[in-house]
Amino acid sequence: MAWKPSQDCLDLIKESEGLHRKRSDGSIEAYLDPVGIPTIGYGSIFHNDKSRSVKLGDVITKADAERWLQLEVDKTASEVNTLCTVELTQGMFDALVSFGFNVGTGKDGLKTSTLLKKLNSKDYEGAAREFDRWVYGKGKVLPGLVTRRNKEEALFRKDGFPGDGVAVSNTVTPTKDWVSPELPLKIDRTLVEGNTGEDCFILNCGLAELGYLATGTQPGDYTSVTKDAVSWFQGERNLKVDGKFGSNTKAALTTALTHARKRVDPKLDTFYCRLTRTGTKAYNDLEKLLLEFVSPQGNTVASLDVISGAPGRQNFRVPEDPLDKAGNLEPIPQGRYMIGDIHWAGGRNNYDKDHAHETNGIGPVFVPIIKTFRDPKPRDAFGFHVDRNKSHGFPGSAGCVCPMTMDDLKELVRLLRLYDPRDLFVDWGIR
Questions:
Q1: Coil vs helix vs strand at 277
Q2: 360 near 388, Cβ under 8 Å?
């Protein structure tokens, strides 16, 4: 079957390319794109009327630009049909045409890409995850390409993958502990309020992972709270806000989860720390977190298991969330922080004397964690310290990042001295 691009494909290409460069008389002139290639109209680099590359100084009309776009999209679509040897969906085909239109379909583009290799081996999920590897221009990440690849990946996932679509009944699923859902999401129907089943549990877990629902146990029901969370997610992703979990929302959620699980490492010339979730339990229903020490080359050189927040209060948030407020006993919010100096209660290397504190929960060492972003809320007394509260029968913290044992605290001190990191990136995967 020879696929044809739909309006979704054309709209994405037009939105991504834009119509450039418009002159005051309404005509369109050539310009240099972000990587220095002469371009005109909707991303055309080939002068279709003169059978040569576009040159600076070329001028065409808007009608020419529309005609060239259709010619080039049709050509790209034909090449995509030839290159793809497996069953596709309309959304997959449209995404591949947009991708091929942008990067080319030849030996330096789609034809030799890992994306195509995975696609033709029926590794559809693997192929979907390849889109955002193509975001570089002259060795730098281009924000416009990041946006485009995210939209292409969402379109690729929009209709599900061939072989999906097994009907799921409204079987009753009991409330269970939150788990990080596997991708692709095993949700093969449109979910609405009142539905029950394993797919509703999976949806609730996915929403909780991104911060739209509280973590902890999740129901196997599409409740009114689920509907509100879906509506919130749809609004933030510029989707139709109807509270129903259909194919477009599934594609966007899958893309969001995929990107949330990828580490976006900053480019620093010093060692730094990174704090992420693990999805596994530490003790007293607290989720175990991973504190990593990362080299300037992006390699993890050491790591520690830690906790942050109190039992039943581990709702992972961004500072902009109105529910992130003082006294909520939740984990430190996502963001970039500065790591201060080591403060000893009884002098250097004295692990026998604790800092004075109203709950006696600090222990012998406190290392300030200082905000580097604007946040009007007073919730800012963060730091590293051992979970001394655990020995008092009420484990956890009010947001501080805590090694779980004294041996872990001593290892933290050793690593802080060895690598002297001054930046902490807290990444809860919320995008």
A1: strand
A2: yes
The answer to whether the beta carbons of residues 338 and 422 sit under 8 Å apart is yes
**pLDDT, tens digit, for every residue of 121-132?**
998 988 988 898
DSSP state at residue 133:
G
Q: Which residues pair with 275 in a beta bridge?
A: 291, 426
The pLDDT tens digits of the residues spanning 258-282 come to 777 665 555 567 899 999 998 889 9
- pLDDT tens by residue, 316-373: 887 766 676 767 788 998 888 899 999 999 999 999 999 988 777 899 999 999 887 6
Indicate which residue of 15, 17, 153, 287 is catalytic: 17
Q: Residue 125 catalytic? A: no
pLDDT of amino acid 132? 81
Q: Which residue has the higher pLDDT, 138 or 36?
A: 36
Q: Which domains does the chain have, with CATH numbers?
A: 7-156 (1.10.530.40), 176-260 (1.10.101.10), 272-426 (no CATH)
Verdict on whether the full-model pTM lies above 0.85: no
Q: Render pLDDT for 180-219 as a digit per residue (tens, 0 to 9).
A: 888 888 888 889 888 888 889 999 999 988 878 876 788 8
Question: What percent of the chain is helix, strand and coil (3-state, nearest 5)?
Answer: 30, 20, 50
Distance between start and end Cα atoms, the chain = 38
Single-letter amino acid code for the residue at 75: K
Structure tokens at 334: 């996502």
CA 88 to each of CA 120, 388, 427: distance values in angstroms, whole numbers, following the listed order: 10, 56, 35
Dihedral pair phi/psi, residue 248, rounded to 5°? -65, -40
Check residue 352 and report its DSSP letter.
S
Alpha-carbon Rg for the chain in angstroms: 26
Tokens of 69: 């776009």
Strand partners, 137: 140
C-alpha to C-alpha distance for 57 and 187, rounded to whole angstroms: 52
CB atoms within 10 A of CB 37: 13
- CA-to-CA separations, 299 to 136, 262, 270, 274, 373, in angstroms, rounded: 21, 14, 12, 11, 26
**DSSP symbols for 9-78:** HHHHHHHHH--BPBPTTS-EE-EE-TTS-EEBBTTB-EETTTTEE--TT-EE-HHHHHHHHHHHHHHHHH
Own/partner pairs, 221-227, CB within 8 angstroms, 24+ separation: 221/173, 221/195, 221/196, 222/191, 222/192, 222/193, 222/194, 222/195, 222/196, 223/193, 224/193, 226/193, 226/200, 227/192, 227/193
